[in-house]
Design brief:
about 240 residues, alpha+beta, Zincin-like, 4-stranded mixed beta sheet, 6 helices
Length: about 240
């Protein structure tokens, strides 16, 4: 089972439709995709800042555009957020590390992030790749043994643990008891990271999200609701 982000959308890719909305005084193209399984209108802002509208089968596109228009303030906030994500990482860029928001300090040969000192291997304005690469290696060295430790504590047999760069989930548990974790867990508070690990471990016992599964989670992670609230509030910042 996979612990997916609540906003991940696996519908068919949208087609350019020639539809537009005026948002914050600018005309924004809206890609419309009709999906036979959709039950309601869904508006998404993509990584590039474009707007995507999913329309249920049989529903009105005009009605969907009207719905999207009522979400104009939300759409603008998301577009601004995406623009910030796409901006180069430089001095002053805010990055989360172990739950704390820290500011980068970029120097000719090193990048400072709170207590971290990250050597620079190449000159350039954007240090995102070097910082993310450093954090991913650190995550691999910490998350794998932590998962194995929690598996022993809960007597859950697992085959393997891996750390990956995932864009739509925090973790996953395969039918072969392989646990996969997103390296960005290292950017979260320890209790949130542990919750995600517990969540995937409990999928070894219950490969679903039934009430029994959530009882298993609660039995090993009493703070899981607090962790879910943190993810809903801050999860998008990490992707």
């Amino acid at each position: 089972m996979q612990l997916r982000l609540p906003w991940s959308d696996r519908t068919a890719p949208p087609k350019s439709s020639g539809h537009h909305l005026v948002i914050a005084g600018r005309e924004i193209e809206v890609s419309v995709a009709r999906h036979r399984l959709a039950r309601r209108y869904v508006v998404r802002v993509t990584d590039s800042g474009s707007v995507r509208l999913t329309v249920p089968r049989g529903a009105s596109i005009a009605g969907g555009l009207a719905f999207a228009g009522r979400q104009a303030e939300w759409i603008e906030r998301q577009r601004q957020r995406q623009a910030m994500r796409a901006a180069p990482w430089a001095t002053g860029t805010s990055i989360r590390f172990r739950g704390t928001l820290l500011s980068l300090v970029v120097k000719p040969r090193v990048v400072e992030l709170g207590p971290l000192r990250i050597d620079r291997s190449a000159a350039g304005r954007d240090v995102r790749g070097e910082v993310e690469g450093f954090l991913r290696k650190l995550a691999e060295s910490e998350l794998v043994p932590r998962c194995l430790e929690l598996a022993r504590q809960t007597s859950v047999p697992i085959a393997r643990v891996s750390v990956r760069d995932q864009r739509s989930r925090w973790g996953a548990c395969s039918s072969k008891r392989v646990i996969t974790l997103n390296w960005r867990l290292i950017q979260m508070p320890a209790e949130v990271s542990d919750y995600i690990i517990f969540h995937e471990l409990m999928h070894v016992r219950q490969p679903n999200h039934s009430r029994k599964f959530w009882r298993e989670v609660a039995s090993v992670c009493a703070w899981w609701r607090d962790a879910e609230r943190w993810l809903r509030k801050h999860g998008r910042e990490l992707l």
